[in-house]
Amino acid sequence: MIHNPDVDLSDDGPALDDRWSESGNNLCGLLPDNRDASRVAGHFVRAGWRSRSSSWEGYELETSWCRLEADPIDHSATLLNGVIAPDRLDDLVVLLTRFGLSFHLELYDDGGALIREVKS
């Protein structure tokens, strides 16, 4: 689905905190039953996050404690990856659950070792 600026793009909401903006990606995830990244972005925008176009069908989603890339893959899922304050992973889980999205998230430390895995 192509971007709908009335629904899935927004400059409102807080920007990523500077302490996380220089961090490498530490979050990988998959929304296995959702190929529509526009719909995913719309959920985050309505929750007060920023959203920018990052490709024809992809989005960069951002709040003070997290920045995610949401990209559709394989016509069946949306891939998530980015940076998150490690102590806020449960907040992301709560949001995805509230949005009614199935998910599989993996949190990594600075050395690339898996710290935590969460599935819905």
What is the topology?
Layout: H1 18-21, E1 27-31, H2 37-46, E2 50-53, E3 59-63, E4 66-73, E5 77-84, H3 89-98, E6 104-108, E7 114-119
Antiparallel strand pairs: 1-5, 1-6, 2-3, 3-4, 4-5, 6-7
Instruction: Give the mean pLDDT.
Output: 86
Structural class: alpha+beta
How many β strands by DSSP?
7
Helix content: 10-25%
How much β-strand is present in the residues?
A: 25-35%
* Biggest sheet, spatial arrangement of strands: 2-3-4-5-1-6-7
Succession of helices and strands: HEHEEEEHEE
Largest pleated sheet: 7 strands, antiparallel
Query: Whole-number radius of gyration?
Result: 13 Å
Distance linking N and C termini = 25 Å
Form type: globular
Unreliable runs:
none
Note the total helix count: 3
Structure characterization notes:
With 120 residues, this protein is α+β, with helices and mostly antiparallel strands. 20% of the residues lie in helices and 34% in strands. It has a 7-stranded antiparallel β-sheet with strand order 2-3-4-5-1-6-7, with helices on one face. A hairpin with a 5-residue loop joins β2 and β3. The chain is globular. The model has no long low-confidence stretch (mean pLDDT 86).
Features of this protein?
seven-stranded antiparallel sheet, alpha+beta, 34% strand
Concise account of the structure shown:
This protein is of the alpha+beta class.
